[in-house]
Design brief:
Helix content is 0%, strand content 57%. By secondary structure, the protein is mostly beta strands.
Length: 193
């Protein structure tokens, strides 16, 4: 049979979550398994959103935002949308050890439609030691937003390393004096954009 998961949202409005040694996982996985004689089935993962609004802060060792789909060989899969957004009227702040956004589709031969990741620093800084953003599959759904990282109202600071993977183009946009990458006074002395 077919399987579809609903979406999930974590929204902080003028709020704080601080726990440096903790982990938050907001995951929306869907897996269909079967044996070699099973007929194809569809697995569609729902969307997962994390929003910080109006002066919120989130300081956590690991944040995983995931919407992945897996199916049998003759089935079809579609990853969802995963998003971390800082927005609102007051600056927000994040501080992560590891940040992962994944929207992958796999296991269904060539009928795997990748999801998309959205990382928007529109009001405040996204700061992380490491970043993995992945939207992998055999194809990309043209009706979904293109995977993107935006720093127009805050920085996206990646201190040790970032990995961006997508079956589609990835839009990297910075402006208004904000950047995506590392600060120039960091040990690596590099900036991505």
């Amino acid at each position: 049979g077919d399987a579809l998961t609903e979406g999930a949202t974590l929204e902080l409005v003028n709020s704080q979550i601080n726990g440096i040694r903790n982990q938050i996982g907001i995951r929306n996985f869907i897996t269909i398994s079967g044996n070699a004689t099973s007929s194809g089935a569809t697995a569609n993962a729902g969307d997962v959103f994390v929003r910080l609004l109006d002066g919120s802060s989130l300081a956590i060792e690991q944040l995983f935002i995931e919407s992945n789909a897996t199916s049998v060989d003759d089935g079809s899969t579609a990853g969802g949308v995963v998003s971390l957004e800082l927005n609102g009227t007051s600056p927000n702040q994040t501080d992560f050890g590891d940040l992962e956004l994944t929207a992958n589709a796999q296991g269904a031969n060539f009928n795997n439609q990748a999801g998309t990741f959205i990382l928007d620093a529109l009001a405040g800084d996204i700061q992380t030691e490491t970043l993995l953003a992945s939207a992998q599959g055999a194809s990309f759904d043209p009706f979904k937003d293109t995977p993107r990282v935006t720093a127009t109202g805050g920085n996206v600071l990646i201190e040790r390393g970032g990995d961006f993977e997508a079956v589609a183009d990835i839009d990297l946009t910075s402006g208004n004096g904000f950047l995506i990458g590392t600060l120039l006074n960091s040990p690596t002395q590099t900036t991505i954009l």
